[in-house]
Design goal:
With 209 residues, the protein is of the alpha+beta class. 53% of the residues lie in helices and 13% in strands. The protein contains nine helices and four strands, in the order H-H-H-H-H-E-E-E-E-H-H-H-H. It has a four-stranded antiparallel sheet with strand order 1-2-3-4, sandwiched between helices. Helix 1 packs antiparallel against helix 2.
């Protein structure tokens, strides 16, 4: 769905802090930033590890390319390209622009205090944005928990292949910290999603020493 192309622009400015806001405010800020392709804001309010893995899997990046994304900061042109395509594809697939989404109430995730969901809707279109508490007690949008359930099969396939390569350790660490907890949060929100439950357990087993 999202295409990452090799770009030659400068580097995006790495975040210096995470905004100490409530999750509902962060969800609204994220929607506005996606609509405007505001990469400075997105760099700060999006959890970076899950984003890098999701982008890498969606675009079939080689292991070394994914590790480069994980090490960041992201090339500014690449970041703009990613979020523009994300915004445009969202509208094409869901039938509404991100600007039409209305942020609703927070929905805490049981037994997972580091995660919370924020309901969003527009007419008959509904969904949720999942936020994750950062180390400094701020909140960031967690792309792995928000869009990862739709990619859980490819996420497992990518990890299985990467474990055979030279970058297995770095990618495994990214999955342990950025992907598995996010998918576990998604399972609490949607426990009847059998594919999500099965594929998440497959990823967990791949990471078991």
């Amino acid at each position: 769905m999202i295409v990452l192309a090799a770009c030659s622009g400068g580097q995006a400015t790495p975040p210096t802090s995470v905004p100490n806001q409530d999750p509902v405010a962060v969800a609204g800020q994220w929607l506005e930033a996606v609509a405007d392709v505001d990469t400075d804001t997105l760099t700060v309010i999006v959890e970076p590890v899950g984003l890098a893995v999701i982008a890498g899997v969606e675009n079939g990046l080689r292991s070394d390319e994914l590790v480069a994304l994980l090490e960041g900061p992201l090339d500014i042109d690449l970041a703009e390209s990613y979020w523009k395509v994300f915004r445009d594809d969202f509208e094409a697939i869901r039938g509404v622009p991100v600007t039409a989404l209305i942020v609703g109430a927070e929905r805490p995730i049981e037994d997972m205090s580091a995660f919370t969901a924020v309901e969003v809707s527009s007419g008959e279109t509904g969904g949720r944005i999942v936020a994750r508490r950062a180390d400094d007690s701020g909140w960031q949008v967690d792309m792995a928990a928000t869009v990862g359930p739709a990619l859980v099969g490819p996420l497992g396939e990518y990890l299985s292949s990467a474990l055979e390569g030279a970058h297995a350790a770095a990618i495994s660490d990214a999955y342990r910290t950025g992907i598995v907890p996010a998918l576990d949060a998604a399972i609490v929100l949607d426990p009847q999603n059998a594919d999500l439950v099965f594929e998440t357990e497959f990823i967990r087993q791949l990471l078991t020493p």
